[in-house]
Request: fold
Amino acid sequence: MNNQATYKEKESVVIKFVGDSGDGMQLAGTLFSDTAAVFGNDLFTFPDYPAEIRAPHNTLAGVSGFQVQIGSDKIFSPGDMCDILVAMNPASLKTNLKWVRPGGIIIVDADAFNKKALEKSGYTSDPLEDGSLDVYRLIKAPVATMTRNSLSHLQVSARLAERSRNMMALGIVSFLLNQNLDTTFKFLADKFGSKPQVLEINKTALTTGYNFAETIEAIGSTYKVPKASLKKGTYRSISGNVATAWGFLAASERSGRPLFLGSYPITPATEILIELAQQKCLGVKVFQAEDEIAGICSAIGASFTGSLAITTTSGPGLSLKSEAIGLAVMTELPLVIVNVQRAGPSTGMPTKSEQSDLLQALYGRNGECPAVVMAASTPANCFYYAYEAAKISMEHMTPVILLTDGYLGNGSELFRIPKVSELPEITPPLARPNDETYKPYKRDPETLVRQWAVPGTEGLRHRIGGLEKTDIYGAVSTDPQNHQMMVQIRENKVKKIAEKLPPQKIMGDQSGDLLVVSWGGTEGSIRTPVKALQKEGKKIGHAHFNHIMPLPGNTKKVLESYKKVIVCELNNGQFVKYLRSEFPDISYMQYNKIQGLPFFTGELTELFNKLLETK
Amino acid sequence: MISNRIMQSEEKLTKEDFVSDQMVKWCPGCGAHAILKAIENVFPEIGYKKENFMFVSGIGCSSRFPYYVNTYGVHGIHGRAAAIATGVKLANPGLSVWIATGDGDSMAIGGNHFIHIIRRNLDVNILLFNNQIYGLTKGQYSPTTPIGSVTRTSPHGTIEHPFVTAGLVMGAQGTFFARVPDNNIKLMTEVMFEAARHDGTAVIEILQNCIIFADGTHSQITDKDLRDDFQLHLKHGEPMLYGKNKEKGIQLKGQKLQGVIVGLNGVEMEDILIHDRYEKNPGIHRMLGKMEPPDLPVAMGVIRSAEFETYDDMIEVQIESAREQSDIKCVDDLLKSGETFEVD
Reply:
């Protein structure tokens, strides 16, 4: 199918599909994104679910959304403001109108804007008629009626027809973006291949929407986002949570250590548990525990027994796991704790993202209790940081806390598929059977790492536990000098990992006026404005941290290389507090946002400009 | 059929193979010493390779156990032994996993893990040292302390209804429950052997004396003069008889168990219940587990050992079948599965 209308080329377009929880917005968004990916656009998607599973029909609480940004250049985020909003009912329009840029296109199902639905969503007058949407290009499509009519020859039930409204809406968007419907048809066939009638219904609705858009004059011109210049290779779209799960599977295969996950469901981390539970074919053992504590404790048991052991959680779960992390530190066992952060404290805002567990990850345990802390920064690189967390954890016999967040975990982007054999080697320090020189706390003098002696191995029976142990021999001890020495050794062991880390990079010049410092899930939303300002010739750089404890060896040098440093975080200033304690000679500014929202390009551009202008 | 994946030993093992070089630091006269002796007796008899035994514990006097026996061991954190052991057994079903725990460790702080490991029927053995007191923290009441007991945290007597361990275990769908007094090493050794042979979670409640903080707490059952009348030693397939001359027996009357004297009031030998430890329905086992003085003796020995599928076996079976059925044989296959596209 070819779109004959004239089109404007655009570097990127942000589209958001919103509707009632049951309206199929996730499917419409996913199909749109996959079609764009096959065409060759780069993209970043983000689903926006309500906390309730199915809130009452047509209410504000029940609005579910899916946002995607597609582009002809590298896309770092799902975008701030939408160019196109598809709203399937009044409630979804009401909650999302603030995210549409003035002049943007709004497509609504006009049939859904009846009196009752308007009242339920708190409208006192019909926004489609009262002129309140005049600054936008409004497309009033009678989606429900058209869907019904187009399907009349198929003799489908009203309910089935109702359920394909999403495809009708997608058809309109496909026309607007000059998408190739054949690609979308192929994805539909993959999904509904076993149900020919459902497939036919969806294809018909999609085509009807496309044709509708072509014939109405309201559309005006359409858009085309040219292909992005991606590196040669095989790609797929991947969410951060799935990428995390797969990173561990890859590390398990590469290291030869079986994978064990002990976990308790918690938003927004559950998808990692769900994903690994589906991969029994690769031998992973997944244990859904009775609580967070059992999740981590089972992982510690599996770790002692020779597995690559993982536990996954979100903030409140990390609190519950604190004591057990201490046990893993004391027993010097490998363990990866994934914290998909969400807005806290306490239950907080479970479906909203935040970076406020950093200090808990660094310090939230009794005693002197050092663990490695690192953070992924894009959905796709969750794969590599999960892999690296597993590698560090096993090679250095230490717990590693890997921080991601709801925004990364649920967000998706394109992922260039690597070959497992090309990933860095992982060599756990396994003790040899019947090694008479084996001692539980004997260490490699360089790395201070003790050996991993797995139960079942001949000639290595030993005991470990949470009580302080003597150096080398591992007998229970309360000796004052020994305790101080062991505390120091555990700390040095973690610090020494810095020697193995890649140096911290600066995106931009190696020196300049303003260095933006960030960590974790904000990389994309900060990179976009920094790059734009660099293009304007501003002397601004970006240092985005993935390794936090220990920090890369050149961190101080990086922080000293610019005149001003601003640390931007989605919390009240936790990383900057840590940097101040590590490098107190440097002067830091900070920008903090705690709204359950990502940084927006607009606010950061304004902030950075102001800082660049002032002396 | 449940598969036992534990490797057998080719050499004949002895007690010395399991004796640790660590100084045992329990109080002299503590019931825990007997439990250690019984383990040293029974481990060589079980037939597994010595490297395939594993001890896991939580916190408390009981939980020092792993340091005192020469096996692989983890001394964990308070209440979490069952959770740690779950990871151990799932990671390597070829290990014979033993948990040393106490009434506080397993029924107070670790109550959740205790009931769930039992519900899942994970193939591990739990030695539950029940001394009805917190010993290591010096004498506070525990979830099994009899109501009214004066302890350091209940100067006016406890006002809590204690757990009956057997009731809790069978309420959690336990498949194996045995009880022994700490002054009967022979019975303890036999019961441990049976626990090792049982596929599934085997709980052995050891009525243990704490000589310092709850001395004599079980004396009504364990004293020489009283034990014949207040202990019923269960043997599979045999009538439930007790008393000095085995003159007393247990009869099911209506919906209750009753202690009766054979030959008195028309009670015949055939009226006495025959013990069937393998019965899947836990009804009689529950009643036996809850018997207590003064009306009834306390049941000792293996009360229940019913065969049900084990969690660790089922997970292996699922993995084997998923491996056979899936086209995804390695992570490269997984990475390329589903929707992918090429960029040239």
Q: What stands out?
A: Chain B touches chain A through 59 residues (CB under 8 Å). Residues 4 and 116 of chain B are 21 Å apart (CA to CA). Residues 15-217+309-317 of chain B form a domain with the Rossmann fold fold (CATH 3.40.50.970).
